[in-house]
Design a protein that fits this description.
By secondary structure, the chain is an alpha/beta fold. Helices cover 46% and strands 18% of the residues. The longest helix has 16 residues. The protein is globular and about 30 Å long.
């Protein structure tokens, strides 16, 4: 099964997502900040990265996504960004219109239901194989 890298500083969120993904057979590796996530991505070459926005700083996820997409070794790995921005501000990200300033493949609002998470992961992995 595909390997998923989960980058989030919230231990409870990580554990819940890890359980959901592993129950569907995914291999899950984790990191609790952008720098260690980047290192693990380089070492492990996951099939998909799930990346939180707010970690040590309010935009750490954004900075990490730029770094990942700028690396020739990692740039093709799909990124699913976790965000609570919509809930807090009403703003919604759209990968088709926001890709220029935020290079990720899809967004999901926190808290994410396990079924929705699995669905998004499956969609991105299918799209990446094409």
């Amino acid at each position: 099964m595909p390997k998923v890298l989960l980058i989030d500083d919230d231990i409870d969120v990580v554990e819940a997502m890890k359980i959901a993904l592993e129950s569907k057979g995914y291999q899950v590796i984790t990191a609790n900040d952008g720098d260690s996530g980047y290192e693990k991505a380089f070492e492990e070459t996951p099939d998909l990265i799930i990346l939180d926005v707010v970690m040590k700083t309010k935009d750490e996820g954004f900075q990490t996504s730029y770094k990942l997409k700028s690396s020739p070794h990692l740039s093709k790995i799909p990124i699913l960004m976790l965000t609570s921005v919509g809930r807090e501000t009403g703003f919604r990200f759209n990968p088709e219109t926001d890709e220029e300033y935020l290079p990720v493949d899809d967004f999901v609002e926190k808290p994410v239901r396990p079924k929705e998470l699995i669905h998004k992961v499956e969609q991105l992995l299918k799209k990446a194989k094409k």
